[in-house]
Write a structure and sequence with these properties.
Blueprint: H1 2-7, H2 15-28, H3 33-67
Helix pairs in contact: 2-3
Length: about 70
Amino acid sequence: VLMLNLCSGELQLSPAQLFETMQAAFCSGEAGGTAGQILMDIRIPRALAAALVGAALGVSGYLLQSLSQNG
């Protein structure tokens, strides 16, 4: 699901383009054109934020179940 999130959007990226762009951005430090800018400035932060929010909701659900002794 994360890979689909990173590949889809107004500018479609294939999985090969995704990996090439990420490799160029993380290894050389250069975003690598329009696709790199979109990936590094919009899609990766959005995906990380979604993962963190999902984890926080999971932890809060667990704590609520533990406090109410429902789980």
